[in-house]
Amino acid sequence: MSTFHRYVAAPLLEGRALRSLAFLVIGIPLGIAWFVLLVTGWSLGLGLLITLLGIPVLLVLGVAVRGAAALERWLADRLLGTALAGGARPVWTGNPFRSLWDWLRDPASWREQAYLLLRFVVGMPLGILALGVIAQGLQAITIPFWYYAAGDQIYGVWNVDTFGEAILLVPAGALLLVLSVPLVTALGSLSATLARSVLGVGEAREARPARAVGGASALDRRAFGPSRRALAIHAAVSGTICLLLIVIWAATTPGAYFWPVWPLLVFGLALGIHAVWVLTPGLLPDAGPRGVALARHAGVAGALALFLTLIWAVTTPGEYFWPGWTFLPLFLPVGINAGMQASAGRRREAEATERIEVLQETRAGAVDAQAAELRRIERDLHDGAQARLVALAMDLGLAKEKVEDAEVREQVTRAHEEAKRAIVELRDLARGIHPAVLTDRGLEAALGSLAGASRLSVELNVDAGGRLDPALEAAAYFTVAEALANAAKHSGATSVRIDVARRDDLLSVRVADDGIGGADPDGEGLIGLRRRVEAHDGRLVVDSPPGRGTILTAELPCGS
C-alpha cells in the first residue's frame, strides 16, 4: 500500500479522519464548558463550605463531573474507537457527608477532573489547530473566486492583487488540505492516547474497531475495491485536467475572463455524481438496496441543483435566482420516491409482522402436536407392550412354580428375570418419553416422583397454581429432569433445591445444586435444554461459578 493510501486515502475512506476531526472540534466548546464547570463548582463549593451550603454545591459538582466523564467516554468510544470502562465507583447514599467524602477520596474522580481540565488546556488548542489548517487550505483554494467577485484579497502576509497570484495559491491550498488529513488523524490518535491514559478507570474493555466505510479496515484491500479505485482515478484525472486548464489560462490571458470555470463546473458535476454512486452503499451499510437507491437519487438531484446554483453564481450573482425553478422537478421525484419507499416499508413491516404471527402459531401447533404424539406413544407402550410383558412375567412366574425338572426350572427362572428387567426398561423408556403421572396427576406429582427416584437429596417446592398446558408441563418437567441428571453425573453435588412457581403469566423453574460448578452454558446438554425452553418462547439462564455450584433458571410464558 502506497504512502498516500496509508496516510491520506485510507483515513478518509474509512472515516477515521472525519471522526477525529469531529472529536477535536467538539472539544473546543466542551473544553470551555468543562473549565467553567470546574472553576465555578470548586470556587462556590469551597467558598460556601463554611456555611455548609458548599456541601450540596460540591455534590452537584461531583454528579456533573461523572456525567461529563461519561459523555467524554462515549465520544472517545464512538469517534476514536477507544472504549473505556468506568470501573467500580462509590455508591452515593442518602448521607451527604459520607457521599462527599467518598467522592473526594475516590482516585477516579480526580482523574476525571484532570481529563476535563486537559480537554480545555490541550484539547481546545488541538481543535483550533486542526480547524485552522483546514480553513487556510480552503481559503487558498477559493481565493480565485473571491478575487473574481470582490477584488484584492489578503492571505496571511500575502497581498493578492492579481488573478495570477490568486491562482498560484490553489495548489498550495490543495496540498495543505491533503496534509491536514494525516495531521488530523495524528491529533485524533494523540487524543485517544490521552483519554486512555487519564480517563480510563479500571480495566479497559475491548476497543471498538474503527468503523470503516463499507466495512473495510485500513489494510483491507476491499477499502480500495475496483469501484473506489475508479473513483480515485476519475478524481485524479479530472483534477489534473482542471489544473492544466488553469495554468494555460494563467500563462496566456492572466487577468482576463476566467474561462476555466466552465470545465471546472462540468468536471465537478461528473465527479460528484460518480462519488454519490460509489460511496453511498458504504455510507449507508444498513439501508438495504432500496435505501441506497433512494440516497443515490437524492444525491444526484443535489449535485445537479448545486451545479445550476454555481452557474447562477458565476454568471448573474445577486440577480434573480432562476435555479430555484429547477429544484421542484429535481426534488419532487425524490419526495415521491421516498413516499413510495416509506409506504412499501410499512407494507413489508406489516407482512413481516403477519408472517411472525403465523410462524408463532404454527410453532405452537407443532409443539402441541409433538407433545400429544409423545403422550400417545407413552399410552401405547403402557397399555400395549408393557401390559403384555407384565402378563408374560406373571405367566412365567406361575410356570416356574409348576415345573419339576431342575434344568427347565432354571431356564424359566432366567426368562422370568429377563421379562422383569424388560418391564423396568420399558417403564423407564415410557417415563423418558412422557411420564404417565404427568398426564394423570400434573406437574407437582411428576416432579415429586422424579425427586424421589433421584440418588441426591432433593428439596422440592412447587406452586404452579393448578394444571397448565400439557406441552408447558412437559417442558418444565424435562427441564428439571435434565438438570437433575446433570447434577448427578457431572457436578459432584450432594443436594439439589427445585423451585417451581407461577407468577402471573410466567412459570419460573429454578434448580440449584451444591456441586463444583463450572458448567459450560454452551455444552451439548444445556444447548438442547435451551432449545426446548426457547421453543416455548422462554429463556434459560445458567449461573455456574467454579466452586460455588450451579443454578439453572428457566422462565416459560404460560398465558394469563
Structure commentary:
Helices cover 71% and strands 8% of the residues. The longest helix has 79 residues, at 324-402. Helix 3 (54-80) crosses helix 5, helix 9 (288-315) packs antiparallel against helix 10 and helix 13 (443-453) runs parallel beside helix 14. It contains 15 helices and 7 strands.
Topology of this structure?
Elements (H helix, E strand, L loop, with lengths): L2 H12 L1 H32 L6 H27 L15 H9 L2 H44 L2 E3 L2 E3 L2 H37 L26 H27 L8 H23 L4 H28 L8 H79 L3 H28 L2 H6 L1 H11 L3 E7 L6 H22 L3 E9 L2 E8 L10 H11 L4 E5 L6 E8 L3
Parallel strand pairs: 3-4
Antiparallel strand pairs: 1-2, 4-5, 5-7, 6-7
Helix pairs in contact: 1-6, 2-3, 2-5, 2-6, 3-4, 3-5, 3-6, 5-6, 6-7, 7-8, 8-9, 9-10, 10-11, 13-14, 14-15
Tally of alpha and pi helices: 15
Estimate the helix proportion, in percent: over 70%
Would you identify the regions where 5 or more consecutive residues have pLDDT less than 50?
Answer: 202-224
Mean pLDDT: 77
Which band does the percent of strand residues land in?
Answer: 5-15%
Please report the distance between the alpha carbons of the first and last residues. Answer: 63 Å
Strand count, sense and barrel status of the largest sheet are: 5 strands, mixed
Query: Which structural class should the secondary elements be placed in?
Result: alpha+beta
Rg from C-alpha positions? Answer: 38 Å
Strand segment tally:
7
Globular, elongated, flat, extended or rod-shaped: what is the shape?
Answer: elongated
Order of helices and strands: HHHHHEEHHHHHHHHEHEEHEE
Widest sheet: strand ordering? 3-4-5-7-6
